[in-house]
C-alpha cells in the first residue's frame, strides 16, 4: 500500500510448452494482461505500477508499447473521478529494470525466476522514486454507435455483433515522417463488416430474436467503449443470448481453416463449427495462446460479465502458400503495420478471405437469432458462474 510496484508481464507459468499449469500454462489468462496488473495494484492501494517489458511474455515488441502509450491517454469516466486508481502507471524496458534492481542490490533475473514460483512474496527494493508529470486534463466525449433490428417473435432477447471503430490517431512517426495511424485493417475492416452484416440482415428480414449491431469506441485505449456499454447496457446482459466480435480481418487471401480465439470456452463453438462446415473450413485452436488475444478485444468486456462471445480470425493455413505464407504475412503485419502508420488501405488487398469470414459471422448470428436455445460457457470456464448468476436473476 502506497508503494511503487515493479511487476512482470504475463502469468507465472507462461514458459510451459503445453496448456497445463495453475494459470493455463502457455496460454495467457486475464491475470497476465497489463490491464489486470494495473487494476489489481489499484485494488491493493499501490501508488504506482511499472510493468517490465519483455517481448516474449508481452507478445509484442517495445515499439508497440511505445506507439500505444505515446500521446493522449484515455480512461472511462468513473464515479469517484479516478480516486481509487494508482497515481501513475507505466512500462519500463527490461534493461532499465536491471539497473533499478542493481541499484537495490538485487539481481533482476534471479528475482524474476523466483517470482514464477508458488509462494513468492514481493521483495522490498528499499528505494524511493520521484515522478513528475505535466498533464493537461480534459474531458472528452466519444460515442458508441448502435443499431437494432427488432426480433419478430422474441424481441426482448438479443444477439450481439461488435466491432471497434477507433484507432490511435497520431502516433510515433515512420521513417518517412508519416505519423498517422490509420487503422485500416485494425479495425476499419471490422467496422465495414459490421455495416455489411446489418445490411445483410435487413435484406434477409428480421429474425426471431433482436439483433444488436454495436460499433464501440476507445478499444485501443483499453476496451473503454465496450466496457462502458457492458456496465451500462441499453439491453440487459441477462437477456443478451451471446455475440460475435470482429477485429482486424486478414487480407492474406482465403484460408482452409479458421483460428478460434478461446476455442473450448463456450457452447458457441457448436454454432461456429456448423457455420464453418458450410464454407468447407475447419475451426482450430489459436496457435499462439500465449498472446492472450481473448482478453485483448471488445468481446472480453462482455465475457467477463457473463455473456458468451465468440471471436475468430481468418486462419493460419492459406489456400495459396499454406501455413508458411500465413505466418510470413502475420509477422510482416505485426512488425511493419500493427499499431503503426503502415496500417493503411492497399489497392492490392485480397478480399476473398474476408468475404468467406463475413459469411461465417453472418451465419453464426443468424443461427443464434433463429433459435430459442441459450448457449452457455462450458463447465469449469472462468465466466460460467457469473453467467449462471445473471440468468438466474440472483
Molecular structure report:
With 394 residues, this protein is of the alpha/beta class. It has 2 domains: 4-115, no CATH class; 145-391, Zn peptidases (Aminopeptidase). The protein has 12 helices and 12 strands. The protein has helices at 34-43, 55-58, 62-68, 94-103, 108-115, 184-204, 224-231, 268-278, 299-303, 322-336, 352-369, 384-391; strands spanning 4-8, 48-53, 88-93, 145-149, 154-164, 169-170, 180-181, 209-216, 240-246, 257-261, 282-285, 309-313. The strands form 3 sheets. A 7-stranded mixed sheet has the order 4-8-5-9-12-10-11. Strands 1-2-3 form a 3-stranded parallel sheet. It has a two-stranded antiparallel sheet with strand order 6-7. The longest helix is centred in the middle third of the chain and has 21 residues, at 184-204. The radius of gyration is 22 Å and the shape is globular.
Amino acid at each position: 500500500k502506497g508503494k511503487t510496484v515493479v511487476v512482470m508481464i504475463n502469468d507465472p507459468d507462461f514458459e510451459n510448452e503445453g496448456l497445463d499449469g495453475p494459470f493455463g500454462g502457455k496460454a495467457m489468462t486475464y491475470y497476465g494482461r497489463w490491464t489486470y496488473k494495473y487494476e489489481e495494484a489499484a485494488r491493493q492501494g499501490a501508488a504506482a505500477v511499472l510493468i517490465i517489458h519483455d517481448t516474449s511474455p508481452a507478445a509484442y515488441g517495445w515499439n508497440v508499447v511505445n506507439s500505444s502509450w505515446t500521446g493522449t491517454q484515455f480512461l472511462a469516466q468513473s464515479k469517484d473521478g479516478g480516486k481509487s486508481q494508482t497515481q501513475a502507471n507505466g512500462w519500463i524496458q527490461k534493461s532499465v529494470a536491471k539497473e533499478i534492481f542493481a541499484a537495490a542490490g538485487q539481481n533482476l533475473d534471479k528475482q524474476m525466476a523466483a517470482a514464477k514460483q508458488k509462494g513468492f512474496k514481493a521483495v522490498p527494493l528499499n528505494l524511493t522514486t520521484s515522478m513528475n508529470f505535466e498533464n493537461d486534463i480534459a474531458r472528452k466525449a466519444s460515442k458508441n454507435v448502435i443499431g437494432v433490428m427488432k426480433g419478430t417473435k422474441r424481441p426482448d432477447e438479443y444477439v450481439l455483433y461488435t466491432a471497434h471503430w477507433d484507432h490511435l490517431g497520431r502516433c510515433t512517426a515512420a521513417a518517412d515522417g508519416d505519423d498517422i495511424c490509420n487503422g485500416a485493417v485494425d479495425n476499419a475492416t471490422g467496422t465495414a463488416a459490421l455495416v455489411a452484416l446489418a445490411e445483410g440482415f435487413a435484406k434477409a428480414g428480421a429474425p426471431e430474436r433482436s439483433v444488436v449491431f454495436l460499433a464501440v469506441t476507445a478499444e485501443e485505449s483499453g476496451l473503454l467503449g465496450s466496457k462502458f456499454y457492458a456496465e451500462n447496457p441499453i439491453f440487459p446482459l441477462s437477456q443478451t443470448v451471446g455475440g460475435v466480435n470482429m477485429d482486424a480481418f486478414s487480407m492474406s487471401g482465403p484460408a482452409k481453416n479458421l483460428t478460434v480465439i478461446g476455442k473450448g470456452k463456450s457452447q458457441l463453438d457448436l454454432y461456429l463449427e456448423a457455420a464453418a462446415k458450410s464454407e468447407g473450413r475447419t475451426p482450430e485452436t489459436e496457435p499462439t495462446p500465449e498472446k492472450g488475444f481473448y482478453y485483448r478485444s471488445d468481446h472480453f468486456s462482455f465475457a467477463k460479465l457473463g455473456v458468451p462471445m465468440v471471436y475468430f480470425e481468418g486462419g493460419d493455413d492459406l489456400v495459396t502458400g499454406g501455413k508458411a505464407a500465413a505466418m510470413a504475412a502475420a509477422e510482416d503485419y505485426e512488425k511493419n503495420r500493427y499499431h503503426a502508420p503502415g496500417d493503411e488501405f492497399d489497392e492490392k488487398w485480397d478480399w476473398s478471405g474476408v468475404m468467406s469470414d463475413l459469411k461465417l459471422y453472418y451465419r453464426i448470428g443468424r443461427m443464434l437469432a433463429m433459435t430459442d436455445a441459450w448457449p452457455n460457457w462450458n463447465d469449469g470456464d472462468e465466466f460460467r458462474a457469473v453467467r449462471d448468476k445473471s440468468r438466474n436473476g440472483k
